[in-house]
Amino acid sequence: MARAVTTNRKITMTVIAWSIGFLIFFPILWTVLTSFKSEAEAIASPPSFVFFDWTIENYGIVMERSNYFRFFMNSVVISVGSTLIGLIIAVPAAWSMAFVPGKGTKNILMWMLSTKMLPPVGVLIPIYLIFKNVGLLDTRTGLVIVLTLINLPIIIWMLYTYFKEIPVDILEAARMDGASLRNEIIYVLTPMAVPGIASTMLLNIILAWNEAFWTLNLTAANAAPLTAFIASYSSPEGLFYAKLSAASTMAIAPILIMGWFSQKQLVRGLTFGAVK
Amino acid sequence: MGRITLDKVAKRFGEVEVIPPLDLTIEEGEFVVFVGPSGCGKSTLLRLIAGLEDVSGGQIRIDGKDATETPPAKRGLAMVFQSYALYPHMSVRKNIAFPLKMAGMPEDEQKRRIDNAAKVLNLTDYIDRRPGQLSGGQRQRVAIGRAIVREPAAFLFDEPLSNLDAALRVGMRLEITELHARLKTTMIYVTHDQVEAMTMADKIVVLRAGHIEQVGSPLELYRTPRNLFVAGFIGSPKMNLIEGSEASKHGCKTIGIRPEHISVSATEGMWKGRVGVSEHLGSDTFFYVHDTGLADDMTVRVPGEVELKAGDDVYLTPDMEKMHRFDDSGLRLS
Amino acid sequence: MSTQHSRSAARLMISPSVILLLAWMIIPLSLTLYFSFLRYNLLMPGANPFVGFENYTYFLTDPAFFSALTNTLVLVGGVLIITIVGGVLLALLLDQPMWGQGIVRILVIAPFFVMPTVSALVWKNMFMNPVNGLFAYMAKFLGLQPFDFLAHAPLASIILIVSWQWLPFATLILLTAMQSLDSERMEAAEMDGAGPLARFFYMVVPHLSRAITVVILIQTIFLLSVFAEILVTTNGGPGTSSTNLTYLVYAQSLLNFDVGGGSAGGVVAIILANIVAIFLMRMIGKNLDA
Fold first, then answer.
1. Which position among A4, A48, A207, B28 has the lowest Cβ density within 10 Å, counted as fewest Cβ atoms?
2. How far apart are CA B202 and CA B103, in angstroms?
3. Mainly resides where (chain C) (predicted)?
4. Are B245 and B196 found together in one domain?
């Protein structure tokens, strides 16, 4: 509402909102702070907030001792790989459903969505056994396949809602202007669709990066991504707070930053366009 | 170049027949307006000509060649869309250049044509802006620019002025008419606004429910509407249609008299009524006359200003020469 | 734009997705269904005889199943209540004029992007640990006895952790919905004499109801499958006090190697999820004008 707000009210709201925001964010902040402490300071009583000897030794130790880089690369390969493959499969499908809708389009979309509703635990055993038999267990390829498939419906849906927003008129105009289907896609559709595709990609990488059912159950030493790496801190290493914190910070930092950029798309992607 | 012939062209969406088989010839250089109420199939007809929809039957010939199966890109037609359909990610220059680029035209020829179009359409100052930074009228001109640079066999306009405000609409109407006078290219123009049809067309095609009701020049339609629908649709304010005993006197089911063909007097005349609302436009005055015993409300148009108040008695006299007569099935009696 | 040519191209472009998803759905599902009728244990190789509904009888009469079902419902219900109530309040708050709104929003949203294993371990060790956890310090500071959250209230602790992860999601969606509320409509209501409370209940709440339903349904789908949080904190214990259905099936099949029993559990989980899915699909379908 375009209307003057009393300064007092604004101050009150600001203070309340900032306090609550800080409270919700605190566990993350605390993790980041602890990652710069020595182990002794991490469990010191009373805990110190910022006045401690800042050190980055934990990061060094975590990287050295646990072959951190390999887990990190597994996470990158799995999340980026499954997203790219998913996009390659999904873009044509979403394109055709958005621009050449037929009688069955709505049903196909709903059916695709329904595959996302399948609880992973319902298909865990067959997938596990199949993977074991064909040698995909604990491989990056295997995880890329699974994550591509479980996120494909979300990718198709997000792209579909973005493509739907491109006016059909413009594509028809291109056709009247003499563009072949190929040129229409290259010069008109793609530039207009790129922002939507980019957001879809971003959100999907985040979802794949944080996926923690399949990555925990289908990997061991070789293909384990960061989710599984962190899970290995479950005990007793988890009692080394500073190192746990350093490992955690490294695992969440890249995705946290990407996530902040994709706030708006998050809503659209995870509600399948039901809330925009 | 630019003679378009429709031969028994029909369109069905599933079971629904939107356009029953229809014949129409658009002569080279003609400005043809398809007009009709919304849902009459005028846009669909245009899209069939454009090739954006498949015909369900019949043949479309452009300059004598069968184009029924030709994809839109190959028909040599240019279209201006209602939404303008400009490419939002391209500058004005690139928008206009797009069809030329698609045709693989040499750069210098492209530039020559674009600069020329920009000058004609007053776009030179905006040539490097994006469509999002332009006003409605400017966008409209870019869309037209994009169409004219190709020097197409015919232009197709799909309600191009309906998103502009009233003042701009009149201006653009004039510009398009002037453009046609200069280019002498065939233009097919779709609108629901009979004023646009009357002011711009060489030939008007009145459509209803996919049927052609009448084809003719604006004045032909005005003077001799073929049936009640055309009579009611063409002309503003609408023709007064009177049924009953008054019509029987003239030996027909319905008589029609246009508001401007009725004279008004406070003292004597053929029909007596009472003044309801009056609209004073300055140049004209419209009266809505009640209680004439003829039709619910008679509309009368009088040039200049006339002092009559609501509730005053008034006498109306039609110009018998300009009365239209229609039979039981709504067709014109000569 | 629907010409014959483009329609056949469209069918071609959609087929890879359809085929892949069809395979992904049908193959494992039919296998799960098939295994659920077999006596099939990976530790006992040999014939896997058909046993009819034995696995189901065994799984459904196992006291662990009943406890897992209850835990699943409590977990889903608890998290939903916390996130919806918290989400509405937070969305209302964030919709107010203030300084640094964007930053507060970023702070509130952050937990959603933390991977489940990290958030579970951070909460477990650095906050809930009865000796060195931050909560223990606070208790000691206040002169109270530290409380061993995960030992004495394991399910409640997991609900807390999962709620922290999902509160941002609910907040973000409800905030988006709230911001789409037409301000002219609110002003019209104000002109019609509606006070702030009346406006909240007659304008805001009905406007949000759709978004709230979407949040409930989508979160339920994900919450039925909570797994990593349990695995790294309590391993479903003590006993089965924090075992949900997903974890129980996992334990049955990959820890006890009982493929048949696990599959029967999987089928039960699918049926449960489908009940929710039907409602969700209706909601989304209504909004789809394809």
1. A4
2. 31
3. membrane
4. no
Q: Could you read off the pLDDT of C34-73 as tens digits, one per residue?
A: 888 888 887 777 777 888 888 888 888 888 888 999 999 9
Assess C32–A contact: CB distance below 8 Å, yes or no: yes
Q: Which residue has the tokens 């669909």?
A: B44
CATH number for the segment(s) A66-232:
1.10.3720.10
Q: Which residue has the tokens 């062209």?
A: B9
Q: Identity (one letter) of the amino acid at B292?
A: T
- Are the C-beta atoms of residues C18 and A108 closer than 8 Å to each other? yes
For residue range B281-305, what is the model confidence (pLDDT) as tens digits?
A: 888 999 899 888 777 788 999 888 8
State which H helix or E strand residue A203 sits in. helix A190-210
Q: How far is Cα C155 from Cα B12, in angstroms, rounded to an integer?
A: 62
Spatial strand order of the sheet with B203-208 comes to: B77-80, B154-158, B186-191, B31-35, B203-208, B211-216
Q: Which two tokens stand for residue A65?
A: 């001792």
What ipTM score was computed for the predicted complex, to two decimals?
Answer: 0.85
Q: Which two tokens stand for residue B71?
A: 């994809």
Q: DSSP class of residue B68?
A: T
Strand partners, C50: C38
C-alpha distance from C186 to closest chain A C-alpha (Å) = 9
Domain that holds residue B74: 4-231
The H or E element that residue C127 is part of is: none
> Would you say C176 and C109 are in contact if contact means Cβ atoms under 8 Å apart?
no
Do B149 and B198 reside in the same domain of the chain?
yes
CATH of the domain at B273: 2.40.50.140
Residues of B within 8 A of C3 (CB-CB) are: 51-54, 71
Give dist(CA C37, CA C55) in Å, integer. Answer: 7
Residue C194 amino acid letter: A
What residue has token string 């790989």?
A81
Place of tokens 């922002």: A195
pLDDT digits (tens, 9 = 90+) for A71-106: 999 999 999 999 999 999 999 899 888 888 888 888
**Which chains share 3+ C-beta pairs under 8 angstroms with A?**
B, C
B140 and B166 share a domain? yes
Question: C-alpha distances in angstroms, A6 versus A11, A249, B289, C120?
Answer: 9, 40, 57, 42
- In chain C, the residue whose alpha carbon lies closest to the alpha carbon of B52 is C1
Contact B50 A180 (CB under 8 A): no
